[in-house]
Each structure stands twice: as structure tokens, then as C-alpha cells.
Design brief:
Gyrase A, domain 2, four-stranded antiparallel beta sheet, 21 helices, RNA-binding, Isoleucyl-tRNA Synthetase, Domain 1, five-stranded parallel beta sheet, alpha/beta
RNA sequence: GGGCGAGUAGCUCAGUGGAUUAGAGCAUUUGGCUACGAACCAAAAGGUCAGGGGUUCAAAUCCCUUCUCGCUCACCA
């Protein structure tokens, strides 16, 4: 179905044309939800900016628009307020009818896009042999949510994990592996490398202190790139081990992603460079092959290059990213490519995109977008850095979140003298703990820095996952108590919306579609969080003010339908964020 | 120094096409459980939207400028 907002926009646009002529056909009707219910549900501000061009009083313009509007079915007669705002109030009957329409629909009225555009979401992307840190957590959680939202809308989404599985650090790692665990290179499964990070650290120490070792490491890179079998074997070993560790995190967070690391693009790197050369974009500077960028300068004001081949002949991440764009466009058929990485890489992506456009690797028909997110800061507001000694193990972090949730549940059980099975406690603690971590991250505007604070994210009050989970549990409690199967409710019952709280809740439920469409284009999942939080608040108010099971028919069934629709909206919304609901908690 | 981003209640944050009185949550104070689970609800208090200019009928939002903070600036990714 078409959202209320879209219907109003269309109606106002049509009224503009019939009132003032076709030259206003492309004028934005400026329809938006009101910020204050006393002005109705929606407003159009279009009369005010038109006052100048039409040389008329804005209130008169507003009146002409109203005279040409045909909205009797959905709205009360529109009113003009202040200098010329048009206020719309939805008819209660119309809201009831819409609710009845979405009630039997699993998608709650949200349509699928047609045709299914191919979209690539590039996210998570940890580095082999390094710890996944909080930055990867953000990319993983935000990227997964974006992918889920687009998938729900019907896009053909390819989720790609662009893991750092190539580069100079492997020379060092392999050289160290040869030295410390030679048997691992020749015998299958001879050794469980165990803590890869400590291996990395030890290798790094060797590398920094021992020039001889440094030499060996460099030769090892050359050997690996040349494809020497034992070097490749060692590389494979490191990748496999890392992969296992990543998978633990992905399993815990319920993340599905296809690995296609940097090494995948190795065969295409040379071609990229020669393609740039052929197109006359390439220049050599200080021995490195590069493309100079427009609009980027260094501290002396000179243009900044994008280096695609280092002076030693090696390629770097810009080359890989260009090759990846080409492959994704030509082979994968992507029409939109979304990169979920920290905002520190904004310059890099801007450069890569610019060169890709210039080289016509990236046609105008394909949209590329960097979805940046802010830094992860500690409770003290300072940046959390893995290198600074304090390593932040992601697994520990998630386990701690679950432990907090478990503790909280235990306290509650004691207070309420409830008894639950260990399985129940495990399950609830896990869902609540992990949801809290995900929701804390997603509920903020991703572009701002993120203050990582256990107490805050595990707080079970306010705009948090547990609040929403509880708002879902409440209708389920009604269902159990009243012995009601929500799926068997009489769909012929007309939904009566007499109480203020009922009406407010009903209107909010119907906004799901416009919110999802908004996020589909602006890629800001926190908008969904806000919507769900407000929905939960409105449900709690409704729940407080209106009896459900004790109400008389047809109000009883009507309220049951409202409760069910709320629950299903929360469940659906949370599922788009990668969060599961609980029937009891 | 250049580029980018940020500065909104004591704290954490919403506010992305300019619009009527700037919003939540936490914390604080005060009410509400003989129960559709109170992990809830109701109410109070709390702001020169960093400062200063400008554009406009209208600016937290757009433009200029100053200050503060962060990220980033050629062979790591």
C-alpha cells in the first residue's frame, strides 16, 4: 500500500497543479508530520514559499490548494493556521480501515520494491590475525541492520566481508610462523595457533627490533605474492584460524556474511593500473604510480595523489578498492554499493570514487555510498585504541553484556519470588544482553562518536532494547492470560478508536512504512529505533489507560487487535535491526 | 596550515528538504500495584541550541566569522 504521507504528498501536488497550473507539477508539496498534535497529524507548508513566486497572500494560496484537494476519505476538512500552514487531521474511520487492511498482512502493509535492484553492502571487514575490536562491532551491527532493512524491502542484497587478508603484514607473520612453529607449515592441523593476536604481537616485536628478521619478512612477502606453495600454505593457515575466531562473533550476533577478502582481487590489480594508464590518468611521482585528485590538497596546497602502485611495485588498498568496484559493477551487477566503515576513511573513499568515475570503472547509473560512523570512545570520552595496550576483546565484551543481563534477571526473579528454568534464564540473558549492545549502537545517529559505556548500554530503562522487549512481552502476557490466539482474532471486527491513547497508538502503527522507506534512502537505522521507542511508549500509555481483557465487545477484540499489531510491529522492526524478541522475560 | 565532522538540559542523545511554544531518556523531586507482569505510567524541575554577524515573513537548521574538540593529510588498511 501507499503510505499516508505519500498519499498526502500526491494529493497536494495534484491540487497545486489544478489550482495554479502545470508549472508547479515538480514543486515539493512540503508535507510532513506535525511536531505538535494540536496542529493535526500532517501539515503542508508549501503555501509560504509560493507566496513570492505567485505574488499572492500565503493564506489565500493555502485556501486555493484546499479548494482543489480531494481528501474527504482520509482527512477531516483541512484547516489553515498561522501565516498559511495547511493542517491535516486523519479521519478515525480511515485509520480503522487501514489497520484492518494491514492486520492480516505479515509485512504489515510495507510493500516490496519492484524490480529488485542489486545492492552490495560491504561491512564488518576485520583484519586477519588481528583482534576484532569495537570499530568492527559498529560496522558489523550497522551493516547488518542496513542489509536486513534492504532485504526486507525486497532488494537483492549481497553482503560482503572485505576482510584484510592480504598485505605486507603477512610477510612478518609467516616469517615468524616459520621460526616459531615450523611444523605447522608442513603437517596438516599440526598446531592450534590459538591466540593469533599474541602471535601477531610477538611477530611485531621481532620485526621492530631485528633487522635480519625484517629482511626475512620482506622476502616472505615477495614469495607469497609470487605464489610459493609453502608461503601460501602458511597464509592459508593464518586465514583459517582467524576465520574461526571471527565466526564465533558472527554466530553470537547472528550475522550472515559472505567472505570475499582483499586477496580475491589480486588477479585484477595489474589490469586496473594499466587501465588507468591507458586512460591517461596515471602519473609517476616519487617512484609511485598515482592519480592526482581534484579537490584534495596536502599541507603545502599541492594536489594529493591516490597511489595505486607503490614505488616498490606493490599494490595497496586503493588499487584493491578500485578493482573491487569494477568487479562488483561488472560481475556482480551491483546498482548500489554501500560501504560501512568508520568516518576516518571518508577521504580515502572520496578519492577512490572520484578516480573510479573518471576511469569509467564506475558508471553514472551505479550509486556508491560511504556510510560512515563515528569513533568508539571509552567512558572517559577518549578514543579506545587497541594499540595502546588495552585490547578490547569483542567476545569478552559480549559475554560481559550477557552476564550483566543475567545478573539483572536474577535480582528481578528474587524480588518477584519467581522461579524459572536454567534454560529460560540462559536464553533471556543472552537475548537481552546482545540486544542491549546492538541497540545501544544502532539507536544513536551513527555519524556521531559513540561512547561505549557498559552501564549505559545495559541500563534496562529508557530508550533501550529491554524497554522495547518489554513492550513486546506485555501483549504476549495478555494473550496468555486471556487464553487468546492473536492469529485467530476476528478480522471482521471493526476497530474502534474512542480513547486518545488508542488513537495515538493506531496512528503510530501506521507510520511504519514511511519510516522504513526513509531509512532505505538515508541509511540511518536510529530512525527505526526512535520509531519503535515511541511506539512502545504509546503502547504502554494505551495499556495503562485502557482495559483490554475486561473491555466489552466490540472494544475488547478491537483492543486485542491493537495490542497484536503493536507487538508484530515491534517484532518486525527489531528484526530489521538484527534483534530477536522474547515471549517472556 | 588544508580537508572533513562535531559543539543542543547536570549526563547520554533526537531534531537531514526553514515554519507555530526547542524534544526524549537517565539522574533529581513527587504521586500511582486488593495486578491484562510496575523492566510500567503520571507530574514537576531543568536550555541565550558554543560566541558574534548575515539572509528571510520565519533559523538549532542556510551563509560568513571566531572559539573549542575530534578525525584526517602520498607509498598501512
Amino acid at each position: 500500500m501507499t503510505s499516508i504521507l505519500e498519499q498526502l504528498k500526491d494529493s497536494v501536488s495534484q491540487a497545486l497543479v489544478s489550482a495554479f497550473g502545470t508549472e508547479l507539477a515538480d514543486t515539493d508539496p512540503l508535507v510532513a508530520p506535525t511536531n505538535n498534535p494540536k496542529f493535526g497529524d500532517y501539515q503542508s507548508n508549501v503555501a509560504l514559499p509560493l507566496a513570492k513566486t505567485l505574488k499572492q497572500n500565503p493564506r489565500a494560496i493555502a485556501q486555493s490548494i484546499i479548494d482543489h484537494l480531494q481528501l474527504e476519505e482520509m482527512c477531516e476538512a483541512p484547516t489553515i493556521a498561522g501565516p498559511g500552514f495547511i493542517n491535516f487531521m486523519l479521519k478515525t474511520d480511515y485509520i480503522s480501515k487501514l489497520l484492518a487492511k494491514i492486520q492480516p498482512d505479515e509485512r504489515l502493509g510495507v510493500p516490496q520494491v519492484e524490480p529488485a535492484q542489486k545492492v552490495i553492502v560491504d561491512f564488518s571487514s576485520p583484519n586477519i590475525a588481528k583482534e576484532m575490536h569495537v570499530g568492527h562491532l559498529r560496522s558489523t551491527i550497522i551493516g547488518d541492520a542496513i542489509a536486513r532493512i534492504l532485504e526486507f524491502r525486497g532488494y537483492d542484497v549481497l553482503r560482503l566481508n572485505h576482510v584484510g587478508d592480504w598485505g605486507t603484514q603477512f610477510g612478518m607473520l609467516i616469517a615468524y610462523l616459520r621460526e616459531a612453529y615450523p611444523e605447522a607449515l608442513t603437517t596438516a592441523d599440526a598446531l592450534d595457533i590459538g591466540d593469533l593476536v599474541s602471535l601477531y604481537k610477538k611477530a611485531k616485536v621481532r620485526f621492530d627490533r631485528d633487522d635480519q628478521f625484517k629482511q626475512t619478512a620482506r622476502q616472505e612477502v615477495v614469495k607469497l605474492q609470487a605464489g610459493a606453495e609453502d608461503s601460501r600454505h602458511a597464509w592459508q593457515l593464518l586465514c583459517d584460524q582467524s576465520r574461526k575466531e571471527f565466526q564465533v562473533i558472527y554466530d553470537l550476533l547472528d550475522i550472515k556474511i559472505t567472505e570475499r577478502g582483499e586477496s580475491f582481487y589480486n588477479p585484477f590489480l595489474e589490469d586496473i593500473v594499466s587501465e588507468l594508464e591507458q586512460k591517461g590518468l596515471l602519473q609517476t611521482s616519487e617512484g609511485a604510480k598515482c592519480v592526482f585528485l581534484e579537490g584534495f590538497t596536502n599541507k603545502d596546497g599541492d594536489p594529493l595523489p591516490l597511489i595505486v602502485q607503490k614505488s616498490d611495485g606493490g599494490f595497496n588498498y586503493a588499487t584493491t578498492d578500485l578493482a573491487a568496484i569494477k568487479y562488483r559493477v561488472k560481475e556482480d551487477g551491483a546498482e548500489r554499493i554501500i560501504y560501512v566503515t568508520d568516518s576516518g576513511q571518508a577521504n580515502h573513499f572520496a578519492g577512490v570514487f572520484q578516480v573510479a568515475r573518471k576511469a569509467e570503472i564506475l558508471p553514472d547509473t551505479v550509486e556508491v555510498v560511504h556510510v560512515p560512523f563515528g569513533l568508539v570512545l571509552g567512558k572517559d570520552g577518549k578514543r579506545i585504541k587497541t594499540r595502546s595496550g588495552e585490547t578490547f576483546k569483542l567476545k569478552d565484551l559480549l559475554d560481559e553484556a550477557i552476564a550483566h543481563a543475567r545478573q539483572d534477571l536474577a535480582t528481578r526473579l528474587q524480588e518477584e519470588a519467581r522461579e524459572e528454568t536454567p534454560e529460560f534464564i540462559d536464553h533471556v540473558a543472552r537475548v537481552v544482553g546482545l540486544s542491549a549492545v546492538k541497540y545501544a549502537d544502532l539507536s544513536q545517529n551513527r555519524t556521531s562518536d559513540y561512547k561505549f559505556d557498559y552501564d549505559k548500554m545495559l541500563d534496562l530503562k529508557g530508550n533501550t532494547a529491554p524497554y522495547l522487549l518489554y513492550a513486546y512481552v506485555r501483549p504476549q502476557g495478555v494473550s496468555r492470560k486471556g487464553n487468546i490466539d492473536f492469529s485467530q482474532l476476528d478480522t471482521n471486527t471493526s476497530i474502534v478508536l474512542t480513547e486518545k491513547a488508542e488513537l495515538a497508538l493506531a496512528k503510530h502503527i501506521l507510520q511504519l512504512e514511511e519510516i522504513i522507506k526513509e531509512v532505505e534512502s538515508n541509511l540511518l537505522p536510529n530512525r527505526i529505533c526512535l520509531y519503535l521507542f515511541e511506539l512502545s511508549q504509546k503502547f504502554n500509555q494505551f495499556y495503562e489507560q485502557c482495559d483490554i481483557l475486561e473491555a466489552k465487545e466490540p472494544q475488547r477484540t478491537s483492543r486485542l487487535i491493537l495490542a497484536d499489531l503493536t507487538a508484530r510491529t515491534i517484532k518486525l522492526g527489531l528484526s530489521l535491526l538484527g534483534i530477536n524478541v522474547l515471549e517472556r522475560m
